[in-house]
Structures are given as C-alpha cells and as structure tokens.
Specification:
Distance between the termini: 43 Å
Helix content: under 10%
Strand order of the largest sheet: 3-30-29-28
Largest sheet: 4 strands, antiparallel
Strand content: over 45%
Length: 370
C-alpha cells in the first residue's frame, strides 16, 4: 500500500510523533484502547506472564483487550505490505484478519465483549475504517461525506464505533452506528482537527480536538454535538485523551515545557498527573484504564528507557517490570490496555537484545491468584 506523505501524517496516531530512548530512540507505533464492562477485581501486586507466541509476520503489536482476555493488534510493520490485523483467543488460537479486497494492509484496534473487532484496511491507496463482526462479516463502514479515508479506533458493547475520517479538508472525529451510519463529531470552537479514540458503554467518547499543526486538547463528547475541553495539567500547553471507562474517567497525556505526563481526568477532581517512575519525570503516557480505575501506559526511567507501568490511586505509578517473575528475561516497554479482570496487554522483548531492533513480542499479564 502506498500513501502520500500528507495522508500518512493524517492517519498516524498522535503519539507516533513522540520518540524517546530505550537504549536507542523508540518510535511509538500504537494508539490503544481497552474495552470495558462493570466487573471488578482485587488489585494484584504480582503478575504471571504469557508470551502470546509468534505472530503472523513474526513481530506483533497489541492494540486492545476485552474482558474475556481476547487480544487484538497487528503483526508486521505499520502501513507496510503484508501487515495484518489479528485476534488472539488463547494458546494456538490466533486468527488473521483479512484486508479489504485488493488491499495489502489491515490492523485490529479494539474488540468488544461479543467479539466484534474494529480497525482499518487499505482500499487502493486509502485507509478505510473496518468492522469485523462476530458472525465473520467484514464491513467497510465508509468515510464522512467528501473524505477519502477513515480509521476506526474503538467499539463498545452496543456496537457503536468511533475513530476519525480524513480528506482534503482535514481530520474529523466520527461516531458510526448501524442505524445512522457515520456522523462527524463537533470539534472545539474554532478548531480544524479532531480524533475520537475511545467510547464507553454509555456512549461517551474521549479524544482530541484542536488544530492540525498542534495545540491539541483532550476532550469528551457527550453526543455528536456536545463537546467538553478537559484542559491541561498546570503549566502545560496541550493534551490528548486515549481511553475512557464506564464511569467517564479519562486518561491520556498532557505536555508542556517540563515534558509530557500521564494524566487521569474525572468530573469530581478534574485533571491530575499520575506521577512518574523513579528518576523519569520527563515522559509518561496513559494508554488504558479499566472500570476499577487502574491505569496502564508507558513512562521513561532514570536511564531514559521506556518501561510499562500500572498506576492506582492506592499505590501510585509502578514499573510492571518489577511486578513479574525475576527470571522472566523480559523487558516490558509499554502496556497498552487493561481489562476488568486486571489482565494487562503489553509488548517488549529480551532486555539484552530488544534495543537492537528485535521484533516486538506481545505479552499477556494476569494477576496471580486472579
């Protein structure tokens, strides 16, 4: 699949433009959202780790997890010929998700409780938002009027889908339903850019709005016409939201002169920082949240490496590499989703070789005793 530089920029997740060191500069290749239910569980201080095994194309990148422990993502290099979406349902149960007819690329980003999966695939030279239904149907859900491409990022229990549509006039967040099709979400007043990244079971949508050149704000849509600016952390100038749970709690990142910091936003407390790993105050991002308020993401360490983290109100931010068996021989670089059973989906590799362009490996972390 070939994309023009302008199209490639439009469809790249916001954090793909952020780099930091993991023994080298590591370009982030994900915008991940979990799926949610109302289950609850006890917090674990230790996790068992399962290597999901070789992915089609060898290198795997997880994108989402549901409460059944089903994992979706992509295998191969993003936007390259041969990259395919996948859904993992257990040991030796990896299903490749086909692209559109004539396409050579697909990615799976979100899976709901019934096994419906959304993502995107190319059709000729453009990306199209795609729905793979539980019945095995593959459906192109189209674009907003006048646009040339689209990308789906989240699906809820009711089958509502969000993402963004793009074309000559820019990038616009959308909500798609089976009955109403694709509708644009109203951006912040005066802005020309919006992306929807996560939808909860009540239909509230988290995402970003602002200007295409920057100056973004984390936002929540109550419906297609009502949008709320969630603001920024003190001293910062912009923010982006990546996930929302069924209580309406939103996580993402806030950036400014002092760096980029993971945040959680609630109606009661507004936006607050999730802190940092020891010595790593310059960079962190929150990528997933479950209905118990546990947050996962990635953060820099004192040696400027990227490590996966989990954050709770009780314990603050903790390095997930400290919470897995000491003999695992694994470096968890980023955690991208957490379900209501406390299972975490992350990626990384061998700590001795990962920084030397080793293909990333997908890991499922399950709380001990859970």
């Amino acid at each position: 699949m070939e994309l023009s530089p302008s199209e490639d920029k439009l469809i790249s997740p916001p954090e793909e433009n952020v780099a930091f060191r993991s023994g080298k500069y590591l370009w982030l290749l994900l915008l991940l959202v979990p799926c949610f239910s109302t289950a609850s569980f006890a917090q674990s201080d230790q996790y068992n780790v399962i290597n999901l095994g070789p992915m089609p194309g060898q290198s795997g990148m997880p994108r989402g997890i549901n409460n059944s422990g089903h994992v979706v993502g992509r295998s191969g290099t993003e936007f390259n010929t041969g990259t395919r979406g996948f859904i993992w349902k257990g040991e030796n149960q990896v299903q490749t998700l086909s692209p559109l007819p004539g396409g050579d690329f697909s990615e799976a980003v979100s899976v709901n409780e019934f096994g419906d999966v959304v993502g995107s695939s190319n059709s000729k030279a453009h990306l199209r938002a795609l729905l793979w239904t539980r019945e095995g149907e593959m459906r192109d859900i189209g674009t907003a009027p006048g646009d040339s491409g689209s990308r789906a990022t989240s699906i809820n229990r009711s089958g509502q889908v969000v993402g963004w549509s793009f074309g000559p006039h820019g990038v616009s967040a959308f909500l798609w339903t089976k009955n109403d099709g694709m509708r644009r979400l109203t951006p912040l007043a005066g802005s020309d850019f919006s992306q929807a990244t996560s939808i909860n079971n009540a239909g509230r949508i988290a995402g970003t709005s602002g200007f295409a050149h920057g100056d973004h704000r984390a936002v929540v849509w109550e419906n297609v016409a009502v949008i709320e600016d969630l603001g920024v952390l003190p001293g910062d100038s912009e923010s982006e939201a990546y996930a929302i749970n069924n209580s309406g709690h939103v996580v993402g990142k806030s950036s400014g002169p002092s760096g980029t910091h993971a945040f959680i936003w609630t109606e009661r407390d507004g936006m607050r920082s999730l802190g940092s790993l020891p010595g790593g105050e310059a960079f962190s991002m929150a990528l997933g949240i479950n209905n118990s308020g546990q947050v996962v993401g990635l953060a820099s360490t004192g040696t400027f490496e990227s490590h996966a983290f989990i954050s709770t109100r009780r314990s603050g931010m903790r390095d997930l590499n400290d919470l897995i068996p000491a003999d695992s021989q694994i470096l968890l670089v980023a955690a991208v989703g957490i379900n209501d059973r406390g299972q975490i989906i992350a990626y990384g590799g061998n700590p001795a070789t990962f920084e030397h362009d080793e293909p990333s490996t997908v890991y499922l972390l399950t709380p001990k005793g859970g």
